[in-house]
């Protein structure tokens, strides 16, 4: 058996793993790269395998960083079945067409820019129609049932507690009259998350591929009441100043949990919550609106607490001041209103969607608050704001960041370091080897070392493009073909160029803003001299 790590290896996005046996070839996930410009470029690269040779695909959940390149996979020749839980199939039914629409809109903007520069147009990654076409490949499966997906491969989907329909994959592969078990954690949720069940316990495995998004840190607000109290205090303080609270949120998962928590704690925090609930709460994302309907159709996936609310006649995903906007016109009108409001809008990392308009209208306002409740990948607009950027660019315009910036990690859909360790610790028969993925490079390495130090288990942190052969209980690193090596080396150079471009752009913004301040002739000459040195170094390097 051979496992190739083609995405979410020393990075968080682009999950994609190719598994090859003597008889079968399949993918686990095929997600979109997000965040840094150099990583986003990877979406347009040709796959390092022939999609037409794949027998099937296993999808852990619907988030775009796990599912977003399935339409491209299909247009490039994949005709097999995509196995996923039934809620994941439903969610992909709205999320992939939405992604196709975004690709078309961004491509239209790109081509206008290229036309002005005298450059030929380019095609989108995929279209709305292509995204819709690939949905015919999906097949829904139930949790906890072992199914045969080929003569030599069986699989079972277990609840991962990350978003509705998310799954841990238990995969049994038979080769040479011997069965090997491989487990893919997918994205693991926190224990005690609203609506969802806790991540399932796995009895045993020979090899484990585990995520590490928060593998180097602990969520600060462990107690649910602490998390909600801080959430409500931030909102209350902002409203008292006449500002808006803008919450960038993933349309699927985090939005529904925020609605649930606001509804659930009406009685616990009394007047403060009632004050908030008199303020309109707008979910400004058509995708989130559709996803909330799908949540309401899958009550069997809810935890016991949520089921009890429903049994008592309460709708945990609704309350009187909650409003859903649909049209772009409704969305625009929100920024014309004078009264305070709470706006929950996608995308969660602020790189697309309506939230960018709300940021443009609120980032400069000292009385408003931008509240992050989910992970912000490196290179995203959300991460820049979270890390303290003083000025950001939105729709070609520089916007000062004067608003209050807050983050609450207790809402995260990812387990923290202790949660991940606890889950690995709970596995009955421990794995012979663990592959640590889905984490930024330093985080993945740190978590791998933590696993070894605390659990005594050996880990590998694969790089993108690396392959490993598992045979007879041993692991061998597989040397990729010359073409594959060339492709990944070329991509590495592209990454370096894009990183340099980002750093130069950031330096340029800093210097331009610095020069707006009152400067002496000597200080201006010093800046000019430094830039001359940089220019000279670049010219020398290119000779």
TrEMBL record:
Domain (Metallo-beta-lactamase): residue spans on this chain: 13-250
User: Which key words are in the record?
Assistant: Hydrolase
Does this UniProt record's set of keywords contain Hydrolase?
A: yes
Which Pfam family is one of those matched by this entry?
A: RMMBL
Q: Does the keyword Cell membrane apply?
A: no
The Beta-Casp domain, residue ranges: 255-385
Q: Which SMART domains match?
A: Beta-Casp, Lactamase_B
Q: Which GO terms describe its molecular function?
A: hydrolase activity; RNA endonuclease activity
PANTHER family with a match to the protein in the record: CLEAVAGE AND POLYADENYLATION SPECIFICITY FACTOR FAMILY MEMBER, INTEGRATOR COMPLEX SUBUNIT 11
Under what name is this protein listed? RNA-metabolising metallo-beta-lactamase
């Amino acid at each position: 058996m051979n496992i190739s790590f083609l995405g979410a290896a020393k990075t968080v996005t682009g999950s994609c793993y190719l598994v090859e046996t003597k008889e079968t070839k399949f993918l686990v996930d095929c997600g979109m790269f997000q965040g840094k410009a150099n990583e986003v470029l990877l979406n347009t690269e040709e796959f390092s395998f022939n999609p037409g040779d794949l027998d099937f695909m296993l999808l852990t959940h619907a988030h775009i960083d796990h599912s977003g390149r399935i339409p491209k996979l299909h247009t490039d020749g994949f005709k097999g079945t995509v196995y996923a839980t039934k809620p994941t199939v439903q969610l992909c039914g709205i999320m992939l067409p939405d992604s196709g629409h975004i690709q078309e809109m961004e491509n239209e903007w790109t081509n206008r820019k290229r036309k002005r520069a005298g450059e030929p147009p380019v095609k989108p990654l995929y279209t709305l129609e292509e995204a819709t076409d690939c949905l015919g490949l999906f097949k829904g499966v139930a949790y906890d049932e072992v199914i045969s997906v080929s003569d030599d491969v069986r699989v079972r989907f277990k609840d991962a507690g990350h978003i509705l329909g998310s799954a841990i994959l238990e995969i049994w592969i038979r080769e040479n009259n011997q069965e090997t078990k491989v487990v893919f954690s997918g994205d693991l949720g926190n224990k005690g998350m609203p609506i969802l069940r806790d991540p399932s316990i796995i009895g045993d495995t020979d090899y484990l591929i585990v995520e590490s998004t928060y593998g180097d840190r602990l969520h600060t607000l462990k107690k649910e009441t602490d998390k909600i109290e801080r959430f409500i205090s931030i909102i209350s303080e902002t409203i008292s100043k006449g500002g808006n609270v803008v919450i960038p949120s993933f349309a699927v998962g985090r939005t529904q949990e925020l609605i649930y928590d606001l509804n659930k704690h009406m009685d616990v925090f009394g007047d403060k919550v009632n004050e908030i609930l008199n303020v309109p709460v707008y979910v400004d994302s058509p995708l989130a609106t559709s996803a909330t309907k799908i949540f309401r159709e899958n009550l069997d996936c809810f935890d016991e607490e949520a089921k009890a609310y429903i049994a008592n006649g309460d709708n945990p995903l609704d309350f009187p001041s909650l409003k859903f906007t649909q049209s772009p016109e409704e969305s625009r009108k929100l920024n014309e209103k004078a009264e305070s409001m709470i706006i929950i809008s996608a995308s969660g990392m602020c790189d697309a969607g309506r939230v960018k308009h709300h940021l443009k209208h609120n980032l400069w306002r000292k009385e408003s608050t931008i509240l992050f409740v989910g992970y912000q990948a490196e290179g995203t607009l959300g991460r820049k704001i979270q890390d303290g950027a003083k000025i950001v660019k939105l729709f070609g315009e520089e916007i000062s960041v004067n608003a209050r910036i807050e983050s609450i990690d207790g809402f995260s859909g990812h387990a923290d370091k202790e949660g991940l360790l606890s889950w690995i610790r709970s596995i009955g028969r421990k794995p012979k080897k663990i592959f640590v993925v889905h984490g930024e490079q330093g985080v993945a390495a740190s978590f791998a070392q933590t696993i070894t130090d605390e659990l005594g288990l050996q880990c590998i942190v694969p790089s993108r493009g690396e392959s490993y052969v598992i045979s007879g209980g041993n692991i061998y690193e597989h040397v990729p073909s010359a073409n594959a090596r060339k492709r990944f080396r070329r991509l590495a150079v592209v990454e370096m160029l894009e990183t340099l471009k980002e750093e130069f752009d950031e330096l340029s913004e800093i210097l331009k803003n610095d020069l707006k301040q009152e400067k002496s002739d000597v200080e201006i000459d010093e800046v000019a001299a430094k830039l001359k040195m940089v220019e000279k170094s670049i010219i020398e390097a290119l000779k």
